[in-house]
Design brief:
By secondary structure, the protein is α/β, with parallel strands linked by helices. Helices cover 27% and strands 31% of the residues. The strands form 3 sheets. A 6-stranded mixed sheet has the order 1-2-3-4-5-6, covered by helices on one side. Strand 3, helix 1 (37-47) and strand 4 (50-55) form a beta-alpha-beta unit. One of its GO terms (molecular function) is hydroxyacylglutathione hydrolase activity.
Amino acid sequence: MVLKIDSFPVGDLQANCTIVYDDESKEALIVDPGGDIPTILEKVKGLGLKVKQIYLTHGHFDHIDMTGQLEKDLGVKTSIHPADVPIYEKSPQLMMMMLRSRAPLPTMPPVATHKEGDIFKVGPHEGRVIHTPGHSPGGTCLLFDGILIAGDTLFRGNVGRTDLPGGSWETLVDSIKNKLFVLPDDTRVICGHGSDTTIGYEKRRSPIL
């Protein structure tokens, strides 16, 4: 039984949606679906996946857009860290402001919550929640064996922005140094935007050092 990862950009801001699945049981978890539901559903159907849940690394609109519709299409629930629930609920306003749109504001559906140390299972594989505030108060990463789905906490050669409501540069640096840089250097990092990296590469190249 092998853990499979399919990560691809979605939406206007090209946030990475990641589908984590077990190649034998076909159980799957969708992380940060963004706004491209047709592509996600096509991949789910093509791979014959049984999606168990939607997981949000944080509450910014480019990672959560259309989550409610995807819940209905797949018959699953969504979870996010409780500290980001207010950001999740207000994400449509932020989206309209940043895109300078006057379209009607959608209402975000209720979400479940996850916290530091919670476990998400995909077949026999376990993903552990790591709370990494800084980009947002409730930002989290999901660590499977040797694979870190980092959301907007850590990018290749860069880190998440901290100038949005609830962001903190000092908190982000602390999260990265004390929670992510303690992981093995060969840990693969799937970033919320852009290409993958590794913990070892970021230890050598990250501007926070």
